[in-house]
Amino acid sequence: MWITSKQFYNSKAWRNFREQIILERMTDEGIVCEECNKKIYKRGDAHIHHIEELTSSNLNDYNISLNPSNVLILCHKCHNDAHERFSANKKVKERGVYIVYGAPCSGKTTYVLQNKSDEDLVIDMDRLYEAITLLPRYNKPDKLKYNVFAIRNILIDNIKVRYGNFNSAWIIGGYPKKYDREKLSRDLGAELIFIDTTKDECIKRLSECNDYRQQRISEWEKYINEWFDTFVE
Question: What pLDDT is stored for residue 173 in this prediction?
């Protein structure tokens, strides 16, 4: 039976294969990126990258999709570079605007931190809540959402007209609906960057976090599931 890429990456066969690759290639130092040789501290941050890229025509060929010889363990940065999402050949533009989207716990903020400069403007709802409440990050009182969205909208308007002296701008969000993110991209003249992380990896990262979310695992698992249920490529 033919399956979609979304079904494949959420399948038991893929989850078992992923775990097998990690266990077999574990070193004395733990999990190590096979490209840059840096240690990957969290299991959920290890990306199993297909050397021969998966397509709709070969996804169901397990000699390719589930072949140990066709995969590498990569860190988040090397995985993005392998797919040329943001590699050395694709540098940040002067006054560029980037919408970084993906599921909760997919690594969106980590990605921006790895690529932004000190003079860049970053819009992150989690950090905006933190800034106006002094509460722990990810503690987002629902009664304050209108205030936070108002601040976010002002900043987005500033980006739209390129107000201020910021270098580049980054907008971090879930944006599971294709129409919403593509409209924002058109309005801002922004480039879309998808942090393509599987549901299984997101939930693993959630279980390994040691911040406010750890106290509300079931709530955040719900957010992750809702994102994948809503997501349209």
Answer: 95
Which residue spans within 51-187 are E strands per DSSP?
A: 71-74, 97-101, 121-124, 169-173
What percent of the chain clears pLDDT 90, i.e. is strictly above it?
Answer: 50
Q: Right CATH number for 93-233 from 3.40.50.12780, 3.40.1000.70, 1.10.10.60, 3.40.50.300?
A: 3.40.50.300
Neighbours of 56 (CB within 10 A): 9
pLDDT at position 88 over 50: no
Rounded to 5°, angle at Cα 41 from 37 and 44: 105
Residue among 186, 182, 187, 188 at smallest CA distance from 170: 188
CA nearest neighbour of 106 among 204, 190, 17: 204
